[in-house]
Specification:
It is built from ten helices and nine strands. By secondary structure, it is an alpha/beta fold.
Length: 246
Amino acid sequence: MIDTHCHVVFGVDDGAHNIDESLSMIQVAIKHGITAILCTPHSIPGHRFERNTFEYLNSNFEVLKAKVEALKLPIEIYLGSEFQVSDTALPWITEHKIVTLNHTNRVLVELPWHYAGKTSYSEEYYLQALIDAGYRVIVAHPERYESVQKDFTTLKRWREMGCAFQVNRTSLIQFGEAAYVQDVAWRMVKEGYCDVIASDAHSYIGMRINALDDIYEILEKKISPEVARKLCIDNPNRSITGEDYK
């Protein structure tokens, strides 16, 4: 299994605070059968995480990668970011400052809901700005956004624009999420609006850890082995290679 949304890189956001915590998160991932991690630190223009340019993130990432290799841990790690859109994000889009997923043109996009920056336009405006700039958008955890919860057809509009969707593991198994979030997440899976499932892990303890094996098993039984593999292995691997999702 491959985890494509998590906060493993130490000292750059609200995930791992130091390299020991990063390594603990990676050890948890290995324990749960994860063979590759796409690290996606927050990158939020207009916020304290606006420092998270490629140069800033890559510094700690390379330290972590070297440590993983020195310890001969059976896992591969790659760098990306979770880029939040807002008015102050627009120059980053046009100037191509976004840290994409493993140097591809795919970007994991968070809509402003938690670290909420100023938004003068619709969600579609920012998504279209990314697409017009040549990025391929994968929307992070749409099940958490009020616009999707209130109107599921929002996903149809975004899909028609060319967006893909990543659902959080915790949303599907209701670890700390409201029941209506779980309902939306499962509807996304059943109606084909989920392209990738990821952990969105922020720690090595608690609910949001680097694990996918539990949801993989649930998907095998509840939907099919083919869907489980697609959402937890095949499409996540395409996030790394840059290939189109199936």
